Amino acid sequence: AKEDILMHIGNMMSTPPEKFNIHKSIERTLKGRAKMLSEKIVNWPLAEAMAYGTLLKEGIHVRMTGEDSERGTFHQRHHIYHDVNDETVKYNPMTELFPDQEEYCICNSPLTEGGVLGFEAGYASTIPNALVVWEAQYGDFANMGQALFDNVISSGEAKWYKQCGLVMMLPHGMEGAGPEHSSARIERFLQMIPDDPDVLPDFKDKNFVIKQLKETNWIVANCSTPANLFHILRRQVKLPFRKPLVLITPKSLLRHPEVISPVSHLLEGTEFKRVIPEDGPASKNPDNVEKIIFCTGKAYYDIKSFPKQKLEEKIALSRIEQISPFPFDLVREEIVKYSKAELCWGQEEHKNSGAWSFIFPRIDIVAGDA
User: What's the angle, vertex CA 207, arms to CA 237 and CA 245, rounded to 5?
Assistant: First the structure.
């Protein structure tokens, strides 16, 4: 996208309308957004708004539903403002971005995941040229929609030859809220992917990346940067076909001071990164690296924040942003680069959950080929 368009969207999402009595806490949030824009950086909510806003300008309808999507479960989104002196007065800045924009719809839904998820899957299938997003209030709240995942969304194309580009946002993260408010059960979605982990694909094929996406039944991603969120949302409707996207989204990272991206990472010529390689001191002298840790999403910031005892040159930390289809080619590049290093996987979850059981055989076969 062009910088002036991105900045315009950001400014609209940072400025309350005139003569509108906005809540003080939201006012602070908007001032924080304005400060980031002045520094040409974006956080997670701003990147999301920019993804939607640029699509609206390009004539693509955007629709979002979820139990608390208007505000954002973690008080981060705020796409609907309520006048504190008159509850009947509302304002949606996303509908006022451009004079000729496409329709933007966001609404809170009841806690009936099966019904709402089924409706949104049908909507996305019927109107493929729209970005349709369903968001669980917490990742684990998708439990009541499990029949839809199993019987309709994961297998709809194989059963009925019907493509569906629905985005399913599932908040995820072990922040001490207990098991029922922590896990999006990433392992469930990965277990429903039919590819063979013991078969190393031909990633020398120039069309390898697009073929992977075309052949899978759905995409599972756990992004660690606002820029990658921006790109993966836009990619959903820019692909020449439609695939469901299981998007693991963060909780504490929504306000994490390190979870920012420069606006330059959203401009024309940039794209979604399936893997974000180590780019610190370890990458400058790979022969000295003793351990390479692959991880995804929030785990990157947890591992990165540990006291390293001056081990920055001996430990490389690489992020797998698109878990499936698995980025065999880019993971192999990292393994080859750090050929003397021990291979490790880091995650928040217990060993019998999370992405580990999916990741292990794939990294193992890539390492055997490196």
Answer: 35
